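Re: your question from the hallway

Yes, I did run it. Sequences:
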Amino acid sequence: MFEEIYKKYWQKIFRLCMGYVNDRSLAKDLAQETFIVVLKKLPEFRNESKIDTWIFRIASNICLRQIERQKRYPKGNFPANLAEDDQASMEPKIKFLYQCISELPEMDRIIISLELEDVKQADIAHIVGLSSSNVRVKIHRIKEKLRIKFRGYGE
Amino acid sequence: MENNVDLNELWGKQRMNPPQVQEVVSQFSKIKKKNLAKVFAVNGLMLITIIAMVLLWQYVEPRLISTKVGILTMIIAIVGYLFVYNRLIPLLREVDENQSNRAFLEAAVKLKQQQKILQTSMLQLYFIVMTVGLCLCLYEYASLMPSPWSIITYSLTLIWIGFNWVYLRPMVIRREQGKLDGIIKGFESIQQQHEH
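Structure:
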């Protein structure tokens, strides 16, 4: 069961973490941490919520917990990123989108990442703990901000 | 200038090859082992200290009640520290990730504040009880020494205690509090984003 979940959700969780930190190596660590928690808590999962909502909730809380990690290992104390892999060859527009998202306030990063991952707005509301109408308004505002940034892109 | 950019499409193009599942599983057991090793190290060190004290009691055979009370006091301080370290602090570190972000942040702030109070009072109490225990232990042996030596012994011990009290204790407490304050502040600033 875990293997199936891992295969199905790895990219989605990686992207969510990437939207939060905009650092592939760090995002990979956060995604790994998410799956470690999933592995640990899977026996307790009772199908009370949908599995994707459950996993996104864990991942987004682990992203929020990033503050603790920063306090324990301040930036610059991390070893140099040796695995920059294919980022250099990535389309600049993709990099720009993730950069713009990572510059938003923390909660907005999570909300827009979930929206772009096609999570239903009602589920996003459950994950972040806001009302659906509030989420809808926030998504509208964030998308507007991103569009404005993209209008200036390439000028 | 970009007007009709498809954000969803761009978003989905970000990919990274997932590490092998076995890597996650082995990391999970590695973390477990590492945590266990840390617990063993702290507990082992403290237990060795307790054993050393008990052996001291057996071989030196203290005659005064103050020495016995002193040794017991120090053992109580260590056992108390171990109890807080092993039982209470782990409870405060664990915030359930399986709740909404809003509830998670609330719980995290609350637990970090409790951890701060607990750590500060535990460290204060540990220093006080250890100092009392050490002074009581020292009394019998210092009283048996010729007076210049007993004065020197007591002075050196008090200097060491003073250094601990004035320099080491506030430094450790400040460092721990600083870390926790930073984390609490960070969580609170994210929490405020829910209101806007």
